[in-house]
Design brief:
five-stranded antiparallel β-sheet; 11 strands; 15% helix; alpha+beta
Length: 233
């Protein structure tokens, strides 16, 4: 029984991040999470999606979320982690007159594969920079400002059952103030075969009957500049 994330081949933060930043790895992670969590970009009409969203090479590091599993029936395999961003100042977006009388401004959304690594305490650390995307004037109406909307983590059991944990930006902000977030999953779902059904999302403690065995995923804030929270050597 292994209460940890299985990340074959991950030996250090630098090597893990270099692999994640390869185009193939990013594409695979993004594809997996977009299929089991949500297609953020599809929520916005294609005509209103920015043509060229750029990542910020000087994004401020330090803030991260640490995910830690407990009570697992067996090992799990990490599918990926994603950051979801949304434009917050709608006045930079043109009106869409096809969805409502008088028009409506729909904020563009964008999903980005997150950097992550396994810490010595078996927690999966997911970096959550607020400024991962560059603010730009996409539509000639002023600079659009991106803000972190949510963080998603997807993992699977040996049988192929897929599980998802999602944290809203308000939850992430509360964690930076010391809060923790616990998500529970039915232990019986661990052995269910993988199917093309929606993934299983975590529920708050008390959601499931007391006589139903569960395993938990606990999320908390971690400042990765403080150390020692580095990767397994």
């Amino acid at each position: 029984m292994i209460d940890t994330f299985a990340m074959p081949g991950s030996r250090s933060k630098n090597s893990a991040l270099s692999r994640l930043k390869s185009r193939a790895a990013l594409a695979a992670i993004a594809g997996l999470l977009l299929s089991v969590v949500s297609a953020c970009q599809s929520a916005t009409p294609k005509s209103l999606l920015p043509a060229d969203v750029k990542t910020n090479p000087t994004a401020h590091g330090g803030n991260a979320v640490a995910f830690q599993l407990s009570g697992l029936p067996g090992a799990v395999r990490l599918l990926g982690a994603q950051l979801h961003y949304e434009v917050k100042n709608r006045d930079c977006v043109p009106m869409d007159h096809g969805l409502a009388v008088g028009g409506v401004r729909l904020p563009p959304q964008y999903a980005l594969a997150a950097s992550f690594w396994l810490a010595p305490d078996s927690a999966l650390v997911v970096e959550t920079p607020d400024d991962a995307l560059i603010d730009e004037d996409y539509f000639g109406l002023g600079v659009c400002h991106w803000e972190l909307e949510s963080v998603s983590l997807a993992f699977a059991s040996r049988s192929g059952a897929r599980f998802v944990a999602t944290l809203s930006t308000s939850e992430v902000q509360k964690m930076r103030g010391g809060d923790i977030r616990v998500m529970q999953y039915l232990a019986s779902d661990y052995a269910s075969p993988g199917k093309p059904d929606p993934a299983i999302f975590g529920e708050r403690p008390g959601f499931y009957p007391a006589d139903k065995p569960v395993f938990a995923l606990t999320a908390s804030y971690r400042n990765i500049n403080d150390g020692p929270s580095g990767p397994i050597e």
